[in-house]
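FIELD: query
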Amino acid sequence: SAHFSGTPILSGDDLLHSGHRNKLVTIERLEIAADEDVAAALNIAPGDLVTLRSGIRSFNGKPFAYQREHILLEVGRRTLATEQVESMLENFQRTSGVEIAELMQEASAVAANEDVAAKLDVAVGAPVLQIDWTGISVDGQPVLFARSRYRSDRYRHINRVPTQASRDLR
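FIELD: result
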C-alpha cells in the first residue's frame, strides 16, 4: 500500500513545506461550538463559537490523514476555505493575516471513532495516531488548534532533533 513518511521537521518553515508530496482537500468549513479540548487549547469557554476547517490528506490517491483545524472565530472568518492546499498552516497564515510564532505538538494513539473510521476507511476502534497542534501567535495568544488523525499503515511521523554537536559542526 502507499506509505507516506513525514518529512523530518526542523523548523516552522519545514512544516510549511511538508505537504508538497501529498494532497489535502478541504471537505468542510463551518462555525461550531468549542468542545472542552478546543476551548482549553484556545483559552476560551466551552461552547464559544470557533471556525472549523476539516480536510482529508492523501498520498497516491489513498487517504492517510483526517485533519480538523479549529480557529478563533474572528480570525477564522478571515481565512479562506481553499478546496485544495498543501499546508493548512500556510493557508491559515496567508489568508488570516496572523503569523504563528510557535507550534505546540502533542501525539498519542487513539481508537478511531465512527467519523474518523469513515473518513480514513478503517474499522471503528482501529488504532490511529492523533497529533494535536496548538498555534501561538506572535503576541502570545493561542489562535489555532488542529487535531489530525493518521492511518498507521499509511503514515510514519518522523522528527529529527538537532543536538548541540550538530550545531557545532556548522
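FIELD: remark
The beta strands are 4-5, 23-33, 49-59, 62-72, 84-85, 100-111, 127-137, 142-151, 155-156.
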